[in-house]
Amino acid sequence: MCGRFNVVSAPLTQFIMEILDSDTPVPHLSTEYNIAPTEQVQVVYTEADRRCLASMRWWLVPHWAPEPSTKYSMFNAKSETLATSRAFRDSFKSRRCIVPVSGYYEWRTEQSVKVPYYVEADADKGLALAGLWDRWEKDERVVYSCTIVTAEAPQSMQALHRRIPVHLNRAEITQWLAVETATESLAALLAPTLRVPLKITPVSSYVNNARHKDSRCVEPTGPSVRIALD
DNA sequence: CCAGACGTTGTT
DNA sequence: GTCTGG
DNA sequence: CCAGACGTTGTT
DNA sequence: GTCTGG
Fold first, then answer.
1. Using CA atoms, how far apart are residues A95 and A185, in angstroms rounded to an integer?
2. Residue A155 contacts by C-beta under 8 Å, 6 or more apart in sequence?
3. pTM for this predicted structure
4. Which of A125, A195, A202, A222 has the fewest beta carbons closer than 10 A?
């Protein structure tokens, strides 16, 4: 799954520029080493046929929710049920987005101890994670929020975790963000195939505490492993 | 009909 | 055990 | 995702 | 808002 990630300003800003329209102003991004669910995150979405960057709350609040709440686990969305889930299907049809990250963390239980790993792109400045967004409004309050789509891990990543966020390559970003793309044709993007080469590094359990926000979160504790395309 | 859910992962 | 906060 | 709280009354 | 369960 994906419950914690990272934004390192300079390289990620470059990555975001590459996936935004060329005439869109340079976004300002601050470096965040340990972003947790319910925090504000930067999201690329389509508005009036243009790719925009906006700040959204990482925990989807459906437009019909009586109040923003964390009663239900809404920071990830299972790819298998996006089309039928009452909470996600409207967003799946017309409000897909990209959550650009420098890398994300996964925990693996080893001898009953949870060990964090940092996952990043092996040949790029960032990762484009598939997401959904929604807009909630009541009285004077407006909340834009998002969730990250998860899928079964490809064979090459099963050793790390059974489920991972959906990584999109450049062509897939275009498909995912296009409002006119029929959801049926997105099945290939949600399949358990690795289409972005990755580098995985064990890191300090310092990252476990979501209050720890400095670079010690990505301090390696062992050698990296590279994972090639399927 | 009304009331209540609407979600994810992992684990024993 | 389960919910809230980050 | 993980960590940490989970409670009440009255007071400096 | 919309579906499921009773």
1. 16
2. A192, A230
3. 0.97
4. A222
Q: Is the CB of A157 under 7 A from strand B?
A: no
Domain count, chain A: 1
Residue type, A56: M
Longest Cα pair distance anywhere in chain A, in angstroms?
A: 52
Rounded distance between C-alpha atoms, residue A152 and residue A193, angstroms? 9
CA closest to C1' of B7 belongs to A73
Closest C-alpha among A121, A143, A125, A144 to residue A44 = A144
Q: How far is the CA of A230 from the C1' of D6 (A)?
A: 47
CATH at residue A173: 3.90.1680.10
